[in-house]
Request: fold
Amino acid sequence: MNETVTKPPERETSPPAREVVPPLELTEELLQEMQAESQRLESAHPREIIAWAAEKYFPRLAMATAFGPEGCVILHFLAEVEPRTYVFNLETGYQFQETLELRDRIAQRYGVEVELKRPALSVEEYEAQHGGPLYRTNPDQCCFDRKIVVLRESIQGMHAWMSGIRRDQSADRAGSPIVKWDKKFNLVKISPLANWTKKDVWNFISKHDVPYNPLHDQGFPSIGCWPCTRSVLFGEEDERAGRWSGSAKTECGLHTSD
Ligand code: SF4
Reply:
C-alpha cells in the first residue's frame, strides 16, 4: 500500500516535562460528568472524541499502543489534534520485529515518537529468574510483570488514557463505554473507537494510507507478543482467537474488569 509521507505539524512535538501531581480522585461529580460525556460522544466521530480528550486532559493524557490497527488510527488523529500527547508501547521484549518497525514508520509518517517502555528485567534475566519462559507456564504472571507493572509506572502523573478498544472485538469488550472511570489504574479511560467496526477501521486505514503492521496481511488480525499470538484459521470469527490460543486467557489485563 502506498504510504504518502505527511509533513509533521509545525509545532513542538516533545511532551512537556511532567510535574508530579496527585492522581485524579473519583468523585460523584466526576462520575456523573464522565457518564454525561460518554453519552454525548456516542455519536461523535473518533477525531472529535480525541480532540475533546486532548482539550480536557492534555498534558495529563496518555495512550498505550501495541500498534494494532486501532492504535494506528488514533495516532493518525492525535498527530493532527495534539502530537505532544504521551504515547508509549509496552515493549515486553517478546514483540514481533514487524511491530517494532511499525513504530519507526509511524514516527516517519507523523512525527510522533512512541516511547518504548521496558520492564526492569531483560527477557534473558526474566527467564533465568523463573527457570524458563513464564508465558508457557503462567502467562498471567508474565503479562503482569512485563505489561501491567510497566503500565503503572508509565502513567504516573496522568489523569486519563486512551485505548483502541472496539465493542465488536470480543464479548469482553462489547459493553465498553466511550468514557469511563478505570478503577484499576485510577484514570479516566477514553475509547474513541468503541463504536467503530473492524470494517470502519480498515476502510479508514485504506483511505488515508495509515501505516499498519504487515502481519495483518498474513492472517494475524490481532497481534501481541510472538509467543502468545498465532494466525487465525479460515472460518474463525473471533478476531482475537489467535491470542493465547489454547488457554482460557483472552486479555493481558490492561482492559479487563477494572
Ligand atoms: S502476551 Fe505472552 S509473552 Fe507477552 S507479556 Fe503476556 S504472557 Fe508474556
